[in-house]
Amino acid sequence: MTQDITPAPPPAKPAIRIEAIDLARGLALLAMAIYHFTWDLEFFGYVEPGLTAQGGWRLFARSIASSFLFLVGVSLVLAHGRGIRWRGFWRRLAMVAAAAMAISVATYVAVPDGFIFFGILHQIALASVLGLAFLRLPGALTLLIAVAFIAAPWFLRSPLFDHPALWWVGLSQAIPRSNDYVPLFPWFGAVLAGLGATRLAQSAGLVAWLATLKPGAWSRPLRFAGRHSLAVYLIHQPVLIACIWIFSQLAPPQAEPREAVFTRSCERQCTESRDAAFCTRYCGCMLGEIEREGLVEQVFSGSADAGLQTRLEDLAMICTAETDEALREGR
């Protein structure tokens, strides 16, 4: 009697490291450092308050986050597309999850009103797990699902998601206050876009071609940063803050009247949707109402009090109506 011995399947073939992907990740890290440096300058008072939350800077921040998450999808396919390498997957996931938790704890201590409870590292950890379910789907179908995730907040927002325990979903009607908020919807769509695009690129032979590219020596620092992206992410911001703090001790930012700061910030934000004539009058109205109601200290302290936010929204409606009426009457 012969014994039927089934040979063990061969281990999954190690993924080839593509230097162009490391370079892309390094460029994204450089862009992130530029944005965070500007944010830090704003925090210390060297640039106008609200600068990085509006206009081109806001688009810049979103494009950086999108590029990181897109590359997460790319990396999932390259690392696990031919078979999930569980040991490496769990090790990487544990590192990202631990870093995300450390960021939450540190920011809760430093800035409790805007602490990071679900930022980009939290999203990467969750997306890394969810993304495994899409590794075998056709690339075109994955891209369609990515579009659905990105579009969902426009159609599916509901008070059902307003409880803080569900803020990570991203479908609450009120946007939570946080210095880095990257919820499941719509941001998982960027990861799926990377997954789908990489699957299509593999079918077309583009990934194999990309692997043959050898960036020049000029890119070595960026590729090194790309290979150690988590460490760079965790280290760069404390270093930037420390450098600006030291500089602030030698050359403190010049103090500016709060009224002027408020008016300039208000007008910059207002002109994204209305003309200059409206915004000048509207912001003057808002400043007057805030002073009349004794809300100056609360507004300039950055308070996240829900009652204050509601009152400011009411004042905005009043000033909008008054400004529109005054302009219609030519006053």
Secondary-structure blueprint:
Layout: H1 19-44, H2 55-80, H3 86-110, H4 120-130, H5 139-155, H6 184-203, H7 206-212, H8 220-227, H9 229-250, H10 258-270, H11 276-292, H12 296-300, H13 306-328
Q: Which series of helices and strands comes N to C?
A: HHHHHHHHHHHHH
- Count the DSSP helices: 13
The beta-strand count equals: 0
Percentage of residues assigned to helices: 55-70%
Low-confidence stretches: none
User: Quick one: biggest sheet?
Assistant: none
Quote the beta fraction: under 5%
| Alpha-beta content class | mainly alpha
The total tally of domains equals 2
* Shape verdict: globular
Distance between the termini: 105 Å
Query: What's the mean pLDDT score?
Result: 90
What's the Cα radius of gyration? Answer: 24 Å
Structure description:
The chain is mostly helical and 331 residues long. It has 2 domains: 19-249, no CATH class; 258-328, no CATH class. It has helices at 19-44, 55-80, 86-110, 120-130, 139-155, 184-203, 206-212, 220-227, 229-250, 258-270, 276-292, 296-300, 306-328. The model has no long low-confidence stretch (mean pLDDT 90).
Question: Which key phrases capture this entry?
Answer:
331 residues, 2 domains, 13 helices, globular
Put the structure in a nutshell.
The chain is mainly alpha-helical. The chain has helices at 19-44, 55-80, 86-110, 120-130, 139-155, 184-203, 206-212, 220-227, 229-250, 258-270, 276-292, 296-300, 306-328.
